[in-house]
């Protein structure tokens, strides 16, 4: 499967670095653009 663009959502959770590393590795392998979406939870 060939990806041209990969969007990865990150936040301040414990899994962020793992998720980012996997997305980065996949983007490099596929020679794809990596887009990062930083998600924040605003208290109500």
Roughly how many Å apart are the termini?
A: 41 Å
Order of neighbouring strands in the sheet with most strands: 1-2
Total domain units? 1
Give the rounded overall mean pLDDT.
94
Rg from alpha-carbon coordinates? 12 Å
Q: Into which percentage range does the β-strand content fall?
A: 25-35%
Q: Given the structure, what is the number of helices?
A: 1
Characterize the main sheet.
Answer: 2 strands, parallel
Care to count the β-strands? 2
Question: What general outline do the C-alpha atoms trace?
Answer: elongated
* Helical content band: 25-40%
Order of helices and strands: EHE
Helices and strands: which structural class? Answer: alpha+beta
Ranges where pLDDT stays below 50 over 5 or more residues in a row are none
